[in-house]
Design goal:
This protein is an alpha/beta fold and 648 residues long. The chain is built from 21 helices and 23 strands.
Length: 648
Amino acid sequence: MSAIGPLPATIGKFEVHGILGRGGMGTVYSAFDPTIQRPVAIKALIKRALDPDQAMNILDRFKREAQAAGRLMHPNIVQVYDYGESQEVAFIAMELVAGKTLHQRLLERRRYDFKQIGSLVEQLLSALEYAHQNGVIHQDIKPANILLTNDGRIKVTDFGIAHVESTRMIVNNEPLGTPHFMAPELINGETATPASDVYSAGTVAFELLTGQRAFSGTTAFVMRQVMDPEVKVTAPSQVDPRIVPELDEAVLKALAKRPAERFQNAAEFRLAFQRGIEATLRAVGDTVEAAPISAETTRNLSAAARLLRASVATGTAAAVPGREATAGTGAAQAPSAPVSSGPVSSAHKPRLLVVDDEERILNSLKALFRDDFHVFATSNCSHALRFVEKFHMHAIISDQRMPEMLGVELLRRAKITSPTSMRLLLTGYSDLNAIVGSINEGEIFRFINKPWNNRDLKQIVHEAVEIGLTVGERRVMRVDTAARQEMAVLVVDPSYELLRSVKEMLVGVCQIRHALDAESAMDRIDQYPVTIVLMDVEYTGAEGVALLKTLKHEKPDILSIVVTSASDSELMIELINQAQIFRFLNKPVNQQLVRSHLLAALERAQLLRESPELAKMYKPAPAKAVAGAPDAGLPVTPPAVVAAEAGS
């Protein structure tokens, strides 16, 4: 086999069908996996075609691409299936995407409208946020590495120079990447951060909005422009006057020369960019914005939700301000309740979004909740995310098995857009990866197993809406230094390995305490204030699990993060149901994820301090037997609801 020779019949186990493209790193083939019976793309390097002086660096970089992308599973990232190597060739087998690159589309003079640009940039930043949470920084985001499917979705590819767990990728003292899209610090050979990818995403957004690059000219000239702090990027509105200041500000902040002046993560850029797109659409008369809910209405809705939840629990009718009480068997209207002559307007009800691809389930849920909430229902995940963007949802219920994306992924995206919406996952099976992902990425409030009991389901949803109303649409600010230093992380680990890592990562951030086992951990908690418990349950065993359950009942404001290599879904569900675990960490522990989860826990602890009533709402309810048939909806034999209190 040669780099320009005849088409190989096979590469590894894969049957080669044709050539998709050639580049500086090798050849990409269309191929077929006879074992799984699916088409794939094969990215192959012919070893003897490589420069002998650079071969080891190139092959190492190529393997890093497989390692980095192989651990990422996201609908907007090209999935890597396999890596292989022989004496002649090294190759990566990956998802075959039908479509063209964004670079090709732009070369065709394709221009996108503001709605399309908003969707493309949202997908790109969602992919980057996920990659960063998993310790991977791309370092070469550009239109040529963004694939566009035929139905308008994007797939980010080429993690060949990915920044993995703080490893700097420099070859022969030269930075790897494309200067037109590279952050200044990378051209200068400095270590990449998520803000480096934010800069590159900003250059892509700029080109989509204006049809031209942020900096243009020869490679050397572009590098000088990027590195020179005095050379400013032209505001997009100078090219297209329809663009409003909010969108200008989002793009220019992403393209700040100093990393500290940019958005520090993709989620921040995504929210600012979407706000700018929505403002631009309003300015050109291309969208209708939902009317905001006043503080007084929110207070009334919160009181109504508490009454409704009480009525579900007791079986009596609740008198809701502004509407008639609904009489049940043996129930009487509360004499002091104000009574109206008709049903309350949907605009004055809490908002509930239900997402399921089965029409009968959607109809059942709409019928169950239409008297209490303004119910948005859809079987399309893209429509659901647009609902979340335009209308603040107090609670979201999503099925897990959806054709477009998994419910866990949908709720993860919803969390980025609307972090105060309470999220519930509806599922008919228990998949370990889905369970862990739903906690770590989607912060699911509860799991609801199919089939469900309507009475219990209403109780769960009303609790979720009550919390959503209490929190409101407030965004939690980053915890300041003084507040963090008052907080304490208790590391329960007899090996001291986890303790050493935490001390290195959080030195000067907050207090670090240590316990060897569950018994000494309880003594520590009784003696000193503790904000977060980080526990390796494989070392602490049943005593550690019992401690976590006890803590959530007695001290619900303490957040728990569990470390384990166990693949026991029953243990996971037990910890979620009865201990409301905030995050799970799988072994071997990724240091970036440990830090990310601990900082997220510190932010959540700040929210609980500011709103102590939320800690009481998150406290697990006593276990009770479920009896009887559902009062409406789907037939259940026998009824079952697994309520997983998570993300508290």
